[in-house]
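Exercise 7.
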Amino acid sequence: MKTATTTPTSTTVDFFALCDGFRLANANETRVKTNAGEEEPLREREDEDEDEVGASGRVDDGHTFTRAWCALRAWREREDGSARVDEFHSFLVDLRGAKEARFSCLVAALMSVQCLDKVALKAFEKLRADVLGGHVTIDGIRALKRGELERACQTLNLWRAKAKYIAECADIIHFKFRDRVPRTVGALKTLPGVGDKLAHLIASVAYDETPGVFSGVVVDTHVLRVSKRLGWVNQSDDAESARMALQSRVHRDDWDDLTQSLIALGQNVCRARTPACASCPLHEACPSGHRARAETSRDR
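Solution. The predicted structure, written as tokens, is:
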């Protein structure tokens, strides 16, 4: 159920949208137009097919996008639409009831980088229950010796770096932010180990606010890959450009759903090496699927 945005947050929402609109307009100025009789984009494209996707590698047909978005949401309602991302996202949201919930969310998010969600969750639970006595707090982390923290992270990829970032975040939040995890994406990105993706993730789940007020679409490897294959963003877009483009396509109340749905599709169906195009719920509206079927037909 959607909640109404209160008056005090409207200024923040409008400013957030204004900044993104300004940045997106500036990003578009770095490309030259690609319509008939005009020049090509400045940056290289991947997997281009002008007949199906357009010269820029992006589907601009609003009807096609709407049909695909509706199909994606319908698929998520079905049993086969659940994915690993749902468990991890629910875990982070459930941390809102924990002591120093926002710091707990930050630690869990740092642990999850380049790591399976189930492995990250297991390591977080070990840190919380076995090392810190039930609560992941700023003081608790700061009281740990680096060796203790590293041993708790040892099952994770990049465990030494993650232990270092967690310890440094605890110190910075204590001294610079007076033991309060910052709310905004910009402030979160000043913390060690926190980039665009983690900042938007933490801002979207650690605070019980109206969706889209302090965060945007979280663009991980699945979101970037799937949105490019669908033609929802340009093939040459980086994660930040893709985020702004995706946010321009759906209402901000749906940004969280869009993130989770694209990740789920990427995990279950639209995999990097072996996409299951034949069973994809979006196959009728996917230009990449059209190309794959055309190539299969030619091979026969």
